[in-house]
């Protein structure tokens, strides 16, 4: 009789990040991987035009808005599976939320809106490209230099 052992998965080290828009009208905190290894740049119609570079929030329960909700505006389009949030004053897109079949509820924070990172730390963040224009978010698009 064999007994299957449950593999022990150690979660990567986490950090509570503060994310804010350009003017400070929108600010939130959320827990993400300390090393930010899951960042991605997508070629979908929205990410392409806004040059979004995002990272998933690890624990959605840690998402805490620190500024009034009325400072934020929401934009949804097409399938309406992803809500894009941006500051009503400066227009900076700070995060996205949605519920994706096969993935579940998610929050993506704009990496460029992270506070307290040096330019060197930003330049060392690993990221991958996502082929969102073809709804293949797990695949790398054929062309990436412009993303
Ligand atoms: Zn703003």
Keywords:
10 strands, mainly beta, binds zinc ion, Metal Binding Protein, Guanine Nucleotide Exchange Factor, Chain A
Summing up helix and strand content along with how strands pair, one would put the structural category as: mainly beta
Which stretches of 5+ consecutive residues score pLDDT under 50? none
Q: So, CATH architecture of the domain at 14-38 and 53-116?
A: Beta Complex
**Beta-strand share of residues:** 35-45%
Secondary structure: elements and pairs:
Elements: E1 14-20, E2 27-33, E3 39-42, H1 45-50, E4 53-56, E5 59-65, E6 72-75, E7 82-87, E8 93-100, E9 104-110, H2 119-123, E10 127-130
The protein binds zinc ion.
Zinc ion binds at residues 21-23, 25-26, 87, 89-90, 92.
Walkthrough of the structure:
A seven-stranded mixed beta sheet has the order 6-7-8-9-4-3-10. The chain has a domain at 14-38 and 53-116: Beta Complex (Metal Binding Protein, Guanine Nucleotide Exchange Factor, Chain A), CATH 2.170.150. The mean pLDDT is 90. It has 147 residues and is mostly beta strands. It is built from two helices and ten strands; from the N terminus they run βββαββββββαβ. It binds zinc ion. The site of zinc ion (ZN) has 9 residues, from loops. Zinc ion binds at residues 21-23, 25-26, 87, 89-90, 92.
């Amino acid at each position: 009789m064999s007994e299957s052992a449950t593999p022990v998965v150690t979660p990567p080290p986490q950090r509570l990040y503060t994310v804010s828009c350009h003017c400070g009208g929108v600010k939130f905190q959320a827990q993400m991987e300390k090393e930010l290894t899951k960042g991605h740049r997508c070629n979908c119609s929205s990410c392409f035009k806004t040059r979004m570079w995002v990272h998933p929030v690890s624990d959605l329960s840690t998402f805490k808005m620190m500024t009034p909700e009325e400072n934020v505006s929401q934009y949804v389009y097409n399938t309406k599976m992803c809500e894009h949030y941006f500051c009503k004053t400066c227009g900076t897109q700070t995060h996205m939320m949605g519920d994706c079949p096969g993935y579940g509820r998610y929050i993506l924070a704009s990496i460029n809106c992270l506070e307290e990172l040096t330019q060197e730390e930003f330049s060392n963040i690993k990221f991958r490209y996502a082929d969102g224009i073809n709804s293949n978010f797990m695949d790398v698009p054929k062309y990436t230099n412009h993303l």
